[in-house]
Design goal:
The chain has one domain: Alpha-D-Glucose-1,6-Bisphosphate, Chain A, domain 4 (2-Layer Sandwich), CATH 3.30.530. Helix content is 23%, strand content 44%. It is built from 3 helices and 7 strands; from the N terminus they run E-H-E-E-E-E-E-E-H-H.
């Protein structure tokens, strides 16, 4: 299992950064290797990814969501991974977005990508592209979901 942590400061207010991150179906616009995400309901998503030449489909569950603070998830099947995105207000117009992910690569290609640092570089690039994506929109997110998902007990 590998842990990847990456932060980026974006020149938008915290609610704008958070609101954009809740729009999972927009992820392919800034995440390399994410081909499609379909939001099934408030807490379930279906992903199609391509990493190291291997296409995977899997479902993920949003396990916690607090507006302007945190979104956490875990995979339900396929590649074993979980993580959280946190949002920290630096000032009225700047937000630090931090991704922390635990990934257990599946198969030879994913393990090689992990060992070679490709997964780390991909997350770093995804965060940089998120910054460019939201800032290029002039602070206008593509949508928002302000509901809460409470962390399960236990």
């Amino acid at each position: 299992m590998s842990t990847i942590t990456e932060s980026v400061d974006v020149a938008v207010e915290v609610s704008t950064a958070y609101n954009q991150w809740t729009q999972f179906e927009s992820f392919p616009q800034f995440m390399e290797g994410v081909d499609e995400i379909r939001q099934i309901d408030d807490t379930h998503t279906h992903w199609v990814t391509s990493i190291a030449g291997v296409t995977r489909e899997f479902y993920a569950t949003i396990t916690e969501q607090n507006p302007d603070e945190r979104v956490a998830w875990r995979s339900d099947d396929g590649p074993d991974h979980a993580g959280a995105i946190t949002f920290h207000r630096l000032d009225d117009t700047t937000t630090r977005v931090t991704a922390q992910m635990d990934i257990d690569p599946e198969g030879f290609a994913e393990n090689a990508a992990d060992k070679l640092g490709i997964l780390d570089r991909r997350v770093k690039g995804d965060m940089r592209r998120f910054k460019e994506f939201i800032e290029s929109r002039g602070g206008d997110e593509t949508g928002a979901w302000r509901g809460k998902v409470h962390r399960p007990d236990g």
